[in-house]
Design brief:
Layout: E1 36-43, E2 46-55, H1 61-72, E3 81-85, E4 89-92, H2 96-99, E5 128-131, E6 144-147, E7 160-166, H3 168-175, E8 189-195
Amino acid sequence: MYQFLILIAAAVVIATSLRAGEGDVPAPPNGVVRPQYKITVTQKGEVLGSMIIELFPDVAPKHVANFDSLVSIGFYNGTAFHRVIPGFMIQGGDPNSKTQPRERWGYGDPSQKRVPAEFSTIAHRRGIISAARSADPNSATSQFFICVADAPWLDGQYSVFGRVLQGMDVADKIVNLPRDQRDNPIDKVEMTIVKLTKNERVAPHTNK
């Protein structure tokens, strides 16, 4: 089933302003180490840049475990950021985007392990990473999206499991690439993801 984000027209969205501090990413509990990863992005053999991301095992442990296990086997390497919408988000991680026709990108593999929803109070703000899914809240697999702008209508509806620490300029570059009618970049944008070692980790502050 096609994994998507539900877009609600601004005219019918009733946005509730959050008070200061509401929706923020909480500090991790004592003893919890949030893993970090480097996403290197290429297009037509040229490196567009890289993003350092941090995941939240204390917030969405099942989603983080799923992502980590996929990174460990090189699953994401060669997959695409197949859906880009300026002012909203970039989405990727579908295995179909490795070798299947573009028409199959976003539909995923029905044999993939599904991850149950882990909704939280963290708001979908710029730089947040969340799990893409179909209409079924418990249908997330490998696909994820990175918000390039605040998206409050997604709060409590999609499972936030990480954030970008460095490299949001790369996400901005991706989201503004020429795209087709399905919001696919005209030229494929591929990713490679590796887990950072203890010595490679960066300070836990977000790069806006």
